[in-house]
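Is iron/sulfur cluster placement plausible here? Inputs below.
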Amino acid sequence: MAKAVYIHIPFCEQICHYCDFNKFLIEGQPVDDYLNAMENETKRLIKEHPFENITSIYIGGGTPTALNEKQLERMLHIVQQSFQPDLSKVEYTVEANPAVTDRGKLGILKKAGVNRLSIGVQAFQDDLLKALNRTHRSADVIKMIETAQQYGLEDLSIDLMFGLPGQTLEMFQDSVQKALHLNVPHISAYSLQIEKQTVFFNRQRSGKLPLPGEDLEADMFEYLIKSMKLNGYTQYEVSNFGREGYESKHNLVYWNNDEYYGIGAGAHGYLSQNRYQNVKPLPHYIRKIKNGELPLREQTHLTKDERMEEEVFLGLRKMEGVSKETFYRKFSIELEDVFSEQIRKLVQRELIISTSESIRLTERGTFLGNEVFQEFIGLD
Ligand code: SF4
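Reply from A.M.:
I modeled the complex. Tokens:
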């Protein structure tokens, strides 16, 4: 049964050079039709897969705050009507771009009960932001955070990026220090991935993307982990750091391999043991819903083997690791009986630790996470 809701708002005011999410320049897009379609999809999903207890709602994108005030109010109203969240318990996050978030929109979010903002900062050097084709500058971030705090939005998360073209260790250190200085309770940091169909992909192919290289990237990650620890943030997942009580409930739904609604063009969801993704193009998404169809691009019913694999490779992203007791409760078989060879090999390479309660990454394993996770894929 679904524990969380992800809603995709695929509109942006400008397209970043590294981004391969499903997004479209907002100008001239059928936003109102999109919201109608989204409302219908939500009703249908709830009817076919009723929920009992939703712990988190996450509105991402795209840039949800690129909607105008009326559209933003409408979208939040749809969420309220559909899920009627108990806002004293439910984590309700909206992704916000510092450049497009003005006082009016922040007031609307607060009034609708949104209690957490995830802010795409990425870096604090204006030249670097420009090179990424971000719309905001570092001064916007500071202004936005102050305004959000004035509205009583205290649960703020900042996203940073490392391994960016032209980024030096000093630049990243400066970004981390500036993020810490803002005193927000949650910070995430991801390394740049070069994805197909992005400007950076084309530049890399033509040899015009000065990436820092693996060693420097590892130095950046190491600096991040140390600085977060020194400043009272717990690394509760490979890329996520929070003050006590501020771990993202929504992200934990993904890593705990729990089910969630995915709503909107290109959104991924997991319901009744089916992983699915919606179609990406807006006209396609809107048309399918108008025709009374679910807007599915693909859907896979997971076998028990696949669910066990996911339990481990998603769960290992958490620093607490994968609980052996939970694994047994979910699958009626011991973790070691399924993955004995993989566990033995990874313990020997000092990439994971296996105790009577759990398996989890070692410090070395945190740096080589992808190598570890892929070991658990491909049960016959
Ligand atoms: S604002 Fe976000 S979704 Fe939009 S292009 Fe940039 S990274 Fe992608």
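Short version: The chain has two domains: 2-254, 304-374.
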